[in-house]
């Protein structure tokens, strides 16, 4: 289990994706708050998807940080979506009454994508944020232009 909170920001078709890995607790909530403030202040985005699919643990302070982030995004007119939580994170959110933070549903992971990308099958890496993925055993094929 990771002791620190690691954040990775990347762009997707429908907005920005911030993936969290590690622990979100009283010690690391400031790290998340600073990162979200920088994103809200400096990056133009209509939607921010926070992916919790690699989060090891969360406590009450971490849940409070997520609630504060949602309110901060709402004040700025940004759609803030939390998705990809594992069962133990879902249980912690439900225990403090913050289960409404999570995006649920069969196609919830693809909601932030434009309709043209939702129609075809997209291989996703958590929260519907498309990243190039391929099986490890298959080599890449090189396509050469015809002469």
Describe the structure in your own words:
By secondary structure, this protein is an alpha/beta fold. It has a single domain, classed as STAS domain (Transcription Regulator spoIIAA). The protein is 29% helix and 24% strand. It is built from four helices and four strands; from the N terminus they run E-E-H-E-H-E-H-H. Strands 1-2-3-4 form a four-stranded mixed beta sheet. Strand 2, helix 1 and strand 3 form a beta-alpha-beta unit. Helix 1 packs parallel to helix 2. The termini are far apart. About 14% of the residues have low confidence.
Report helical residue fraction: 25-40%
What is the average per-residue confidence, as pLDDT, rounded to a whole number? 78
Distance between the termini: 54 Å
List low-pLDDT spans: 112-125, 130-136
So, the CATH homologous superfamily?
STAS domain
Structural class: alpha/beta
Under the CATH scheme, the architecture is 2-Layer Sandwich
* CATH fold type: Transcription Regulator spoIIAA
In total, the number of domains comes to 1
Q: What is the number of beta strands?
A: 4
Provide the CATH top-level class: Alpha Beta
Order of helices and strands: EEHEHEHH
How many DSSP helices?
A: 4
Largest sheet: 4 strands, mixed
What would you call the shape?
globular
What gyration radius follows from the Cα positions, in whole Å? 17 Å
Instruction: Report the β-strand fraction as a percent range.
Output: 15-25%
Strand order of the largest sheet: 1-2-3-4
């Amino acid at each position: 289990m990771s002791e620190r909170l690691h954040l990775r920001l990347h762009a997707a078709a429908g907005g920005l994706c911030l993936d969290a890995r590690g622990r979100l607790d009283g010690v690391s909530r400031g790290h998340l708050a600073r990162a979200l403030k920088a994103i809200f202040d400096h990056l133009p985005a209509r939607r921010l998807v926070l992916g919790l699919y690699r989060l090891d643990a969360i406590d009450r302070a971490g849940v409070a940080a997520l609630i504060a982030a949602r309110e901060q995004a709402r004040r700025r007119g940004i759609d803030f979506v939390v998705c990809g939580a594992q069962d133990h994170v879902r249980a912690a959110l439900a225990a403090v009454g913050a289960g409404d933070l999570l995006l649920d549903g069969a196609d919830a992971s693809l909601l932030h994508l434009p309709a043209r990308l939702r129609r075809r099958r997209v291989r996703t890496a958590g929260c519907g944020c498309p990243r190039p993925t391929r099986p490890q055993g298959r080599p890449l094929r090189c396509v050469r232009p015809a002469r």
